[in-house]
Amino acid sequence: MESDWKPNLFIPGFPKCGTSALCEYLAQHKDIYVIPIKEPNTLATSLPLSKLSRTQLQGKDRIWTVLPYEEYERLYKENARKKYRVDASQPFSAIDLSVNVARYIREFSPNAKIVLMIREQKNRLISYYLFSKGLGLHDYDFSTWLNRITPHINDFLFYEKTSRFYDEFGSNLLVLQQKALMENPQQVMDRICDFLGVERIAVKYVTSNESLYINSRIANKILSRFEYASHVFAKRLEHMQYGSRLIYSVLSPLHRRWRSLLSAVSNPEDKQQVYRELLEKMPSSLKTVLEEDYNRTVLYCKERGILLEVLNTKSKDTN
To answer: How many angstroms separate the CA atoms of 294 and 292, rounded?
Structure first.
């Protein structure tokens, strides 16, 4: 059939919830094709951004690289034999709530399955702040940044978007908590394989897309700029492999080495301290909104049997 090439496993969110790591785990499976450009962003570019996203971009054009539709179609057609073909474009979760993204995806790929990743919302908001600041999208202190984005906090919440995906996909939706993937990747991947109807595999542990931090304002600002350059280069590198495979084959391992060096100078204890300090600065009213949204979403998913739950999950959450 003409549509047999289309991606049929979507990971449309949410930002700073571990979707990059999930894609790396999925890519280890022989029956699952994860496009090398993890976020092709092809299908979401014509949709209006949410007010929160527009506030973050501060008038800039969209920062995401976009794979042209012709190339998008070609890559998936070349891998149409795979049982599942993944599209994990994050802009799907940055679209205005006036657009039903879940219905948009279902109309494009009616038989698709969806995996949504969620995370304790207070730490996620802090991670979102640190990551966007590291990318150079703003240079605000935390309180100023919160004042700017709080009026649009509904765009950040899980519940409404998750319920829309359930309305459209029903039992073809699986919701996964980030901390479960961090602490129990093998158990989580076993459950995902069962959900997809593919054989279980032994996975290799991965880390992906972690925020970096040094407890020094000047040093951390320098690190943030290096991290931003690394992020931008990685996105360009993803596209480069289709323009110049030779250049890609040389630069890709160099970039992985560079990223490992950045991680080596980042201090996890410093980052945990930063999280604690920023959490204290978060208004109690905002904490309540975030906690209620997370708890409501988890309960909603449990009641419908779409929440992937694992045992012995630790509580550390500072990525």
So the answer is: 6
pTM: 0.83
Q: Is the peptide bond before 14 cis (omega within 30 degrees of 0)?
A: yes
Backbone angles phi, psi at 90, to 5 degrees: -70, -30
Angle at the Cα of 93 from the Cα atoms of 279 and 239, rounded to 5 degrees: 110
Measured CA to CA, the distance from residue 77 to residue 37 in angstroms comes to 15
How many CA within 13 A on the CB side of residue 266?
22
Report the first-to-last Cα separation within the chain, whole angstroms: 42
Taken in order of first residue, the domains within the chain and their CATH numbers are 9-120+154-209+293-308 (3.40.50.300)
d(Cα 137, Cα 147) in Å, to the nearest integer?
16
Task: Write down the residue that tokens 């299908």 correspond to.
Answer: 43
CB 48 within 8 A of CB 99: yes
E strand or H helix at 117, and its extent?
strand 113-118
In Å, the largest CA–CA distance within the chain is 57
Consecutive 10-residue runs of the chain (319 residues): their mean pLDDT? 85 92 95 88 88 76 74 93 95 92 97 97 94 80 96 96 98 97 96 98 80 51 52 52 49 54 56 89 98 98 95 59
The residues facing 176 across adjacent strands are 117, 308
Residues 6+ apart with CB under 8 A from 201: 28, 29, 30, 189, 193
CA atoms within 13 A on the CB side of 137: 24
Distance CA 215, CA 274 (A): 8
Q: Read off φ and ψ for residue 151, nearest 5 degrees.
A: -60, -20
CA distance 183 to 181: 6
